[in-house]
Structure prediction request, 90 residues.
Amino acid sequence: MPATGEGCFLIRTTKNTQSVTLRFKLTQHIRDKVLMKYLEQYLGCGTYYSSENICDFVVSNFFPSASAQASPGPEEILKKKYYLFLMNIL
Prediction:
């Protein structure tokens, strides 16, 4: 069976709240679930989902909230690095 996978970067806008939502989604065959779970742990952000034959890694919060502490912790630094990584490959 050949290796397959898909990824997408979505930008959604809403008229009512005048907001913009960023979302990155990576989809793989279920046999790669260990890799997808590892991404979630390594990057410190995103969520792993699975169904019968596929698994997804979804990131929808790229930046710390405004109420976050002034000096970023390790998770916030990883999120920013991940965001910059995505911007360089797109």
